Amino acid sequence: MYAKAKGTFQKLRRYGGWFLLVLFAIIPWIPYGERQAVLLDIGNQQFNFFGTTLYPQDLTLLALLFMVAAFGLFFITTFLGRVWCGYLCPQTVWTFMYIWFEEKLEGSANKRRKQDSGKLTGNLIARKGLKHAAWIAIALATGFTFTGYFVPIGPLVSDFFTFNASFWPVFWVVFFAACTYANAGWMRSIMCIHMCLCTLPVRDVRQRHLYRRLRYQAR
After folding, report:
1. For a disulfide at 139, which of 45, 100, 123, 181, Cβ 3.0-4.6 Å?
2. Strands of the chain, DSSP E
3. Which pLDDT tens digit goes with each residue over 78-131?
4. Residue 217: helix, strand or coil by DSSP?
5. What range(s) does the 4Fe-4S ferredoxin-type domain occupy (predicted)?
6. 3-state secondary structure 77-104
7. Which contacts (CB < 8 Å, 24+ apart) does range 34-39 have?
8. Residue 68: exposure state from Cβ atoms within 10 A (0-12, 13-18, ≥19)
9. Which of 4-13, 17-26, 170-179 tops mean pLDDT?
10. Helix 122-147 × helix 167-182 angle, to 10°
């Protein structure tokens, strides 16, 4: 991925993305009494939000809130374009973070294009290795953080690195880390174009346009 954009909206996207990223990272570490402030404890069937605890019988309320949020997302996408995709989507935020490391370690888009088409040198291998090491570190941090919303994150991290964690917490940390590395490092816009529901209106327009072209050419 070589494209690089500049301007006011690009700065707004970047700063907003960093804000949401920091918010995502610190929430599991916020204590509230003797537990995490936000802990979706599926094993004990308790969903803790600071001083509020929701139980399975309260899931109807959560489902209603998710439905309202989903319809709001589709409404915004339909009438305001891809605002969610461009400024708030986690895929966008993580992709731009990966691109930031890519630019710092391998250079600008033109420089990377020239390097990739040329001979593979030792220096280039070292810089690419550092880039992928940074990507893997970010992916692992993401896996720990996301899993930490469902499992107490302090014991999760300590047990993981002391090899005392049980199978499922380790599985989910590795799973989300692998998804993050693949999506933000390699798939990027492919995920948005082919899998994201927010791009359905855009894909429908493209498909209709392609259908008209094929019908015209068939005449």
Report:
1. 181
2. 31-32, 35-36, 38-41, 46-49, 52-54
3. 776 667 777 778 888 888 889 889 888 888 877 888 888 888 888 888 989 999
4. helix
5. 63-93
6. HHHHCCHHHHHHCHHHHHHHHHHHHHHH
7. 35/152, 36/148, 36/152, 36/153, 38/149, 39/149, 39/150, 39/152
8. exposed
9. 170-179
10. 130
Q: Could you tell me the pLDDT band of residue 193, with boundaries at 50, 70 and 90?
A: confident
Query: What is the distance between the alpha carbons of residues 88 and 70, in angstroms, rounded to a whole number?
Result: 14
Pair 2, 112: CB distance under 8 Å: yes
182-204 in b/e form (b: 16+ CB < 10 A) is ebbbebbeebbeeebebbeebee
Q: What contacts 157, CB < 8 A, 6 or more positions away? A: 144, 148
- Rounded CA-CA distance 49/38 in Å is 5
Res 133: pLDDT: 95
Say whether 46 sits in a helix, a strand or coil. Answer: strand
| Longest CA span, the chain | 73
Copy the structure tokens of residue 82.
């891809």
d(CA 1, CA 140): 22
pLDDT at 185 over 80: yes
Angle at which helices 153-161 and 122-147 cross, to 10°: 130
The percentage of the chain sitting over the pLDDT mark of 70, rounded to a whole number, equals 84
Mean pLDDT (the chain) is 81
- Any idea what DSSP says for residue 125? H
Contact 199, 193 (CB under 8 A): yes
